[in-house]
Design goal:
392 residues, Neuraminidase, five-stranded mixed β-sheet, four-stranded antiparallel β-sheet, 25 strands, signal
């Protein structure tokens, strides 16, 4: 039996050793803002291997109707939600309400939709009011090898065609097929194009997920290239999120390196003393590394497989911290502002992408790639949702 006195001596000695060794309990940032889940809507038809593009527009209010796999989300110029369905090849439009619900307004059928392959289908709104249904950027690549693999690698700016009601089924809203005629610009692409973002005044930036590269495109030409696979500064390992802040800083979700990286687009240096000078580099611009936000972990400010992201008018950065089942909000300098989980029925399980509205609300795609239910009464793991969050 160990006496209390001996135990106390041992405890004091251990404390003194830790103090001498400089071992301190790590201090994690405390968020200064909070957000609450307001509501949402389900968009998956549970258990149906071939559900079609049905969604919350079901006239009977049947919650089992939806589309198979929501992946990417954007807010268009009218404040409506554009959501991609990567399993069936659809783009859906929802008219949201302030309480988190939505009306299923229209859908567009992708040219190669309904094939036996899963597409990584990324969507981004584009500021052009010329066309009544709006203009979008779409990055498309298959994540499963197959006979049609070569057809599924494209980055486009396209005008959405006018949807019409061509089916008597009152579950279906207006719809249209996207054709080659709707493509305004076809951008040069590489092996597996990933998320794409508008870069003012009329350019785009996108990642190649497989090659771990970052590209800046102007017109039909690549004007900057950066990255490459690795864990060093400026390198990536499967970058699956991107945004551009109001001051034109490019922020990338370096997903499998569990961090965010910031870049500015600058003229390619010609001075050999410049650390980014490369005599073999032939593009007119470079992505100059500006810093990293986050590291691998599960505490506040740490990240585990960050996916989709967006920014607000102040330049704050919102990122889906996917494996940690939450969203985190950072200032552009990397200060942690908010850690967002949701609660109850609308608690996040596997956030894949998000969009920030002009009012500062968040719409988050909550899917089920890594979700493991820990409560029998919790939402079924194959029930994907779009959830609305609002600052308290």
């Amino acid at each position: 039996m160990v006496r209390k006195r001996d135990s106390l001596v041992a405890l004091v000695a251990a404390g003194a050793f830790l103090a001498i060794a400089g071992c301190e309990e790590p201090v994690y940032p405390v968020p200064t803002e909070s957000y609450s889940s307001i509501g949402g809507f389900e968009i998956t038809r549970v258990g149906d291997p071939d559900p079609g593009p049905y969604s919350v527009g079901d006239a009977e209010g049947d919650p089992d109707w939806g589309f198979w796999f929501p992946y990417s989300i954007a807010v268009d110029s009218e404040g409506d939600l554009l959501v991609t369905n990567i399993r069936g090849g659809y783009l859906e439009r929802f008219i949201p309400d302030p309480d988190g619900g939505a009306v299923w307004d229209a859908y567009w059928i992708w040219p190669r939709g309904r094939q036996e392959a899963t597409y990584q289908l990324f969507i981004e709104s584009y500021p052009d009011s010329t066309y009544p249904q709006g203009v979008v950027l779409v990055s498309e690549s298959q994540s499963e090898m197959g006979l049609v693999f070569e057809l599924g690698r494209q980055v486009h700016k396209l005008a959405l065609p006018d949807p019409i009601l061509d089916d008597s089924d009152d579950r279906l809203p207006r719809n249209a097929k996207i054709t080659q005629a709707d493509i305004l610009t076809g951008y040069p692409t590489t092996f597996q194009p990933g998320p794409v973002v508008y870069y003012p005044p009329d350019r785009i930036v996108y990642t190649d997920v497989e090659l771990s590269y970052l590209f800046h495109i102007e017109g039909d030409s690549v004007t900057a290239e950066g990255g490459g696979e690795g864990d060093q500064e400026g390198k990536f390992y499967r970058p699956l999120g991107i945004c551009v802040t109001p001051d034109e800083t490019i922020v990338v979700s370096d997903t499998y390196n569990h961090r965010l990286q910031k870049f500015t687009l600058e003229p390619a240096p010609t001075d050999p003393e410049d650390p980014d000078y490369d005599p073999l580099y032939f593009y007119p611009f470079i992505f100059r590394y500006q810093g990293t936000i986050g590291e691998f972990g599960f505490n506040n400010g740490q990240l585990s497989s960050p996916f989709g992201m967006d920014t607000d008018a102040e330049g704050n950065i919102y990122v889906c911290d996917t494996r940690n089942a939450r969203v985190q909000k950072f200032s552009q300098d990397g200060e942690l502002l908010a850690v967002i989980y949701g609660s109850g029925y609308w608690r996040l399980r596997c956030p894949l992408d998000l969009a920030v509205t002009e009012e500062g609300d968040l719409w988050v795609v909550d899917a089920f790639i890594w979700y493991e239910s820990w409560e029998d009464e919790y939402v079924p793991e194959d029930q994907a949702r779009i959830i609305l969050f609002r600052q308290d």
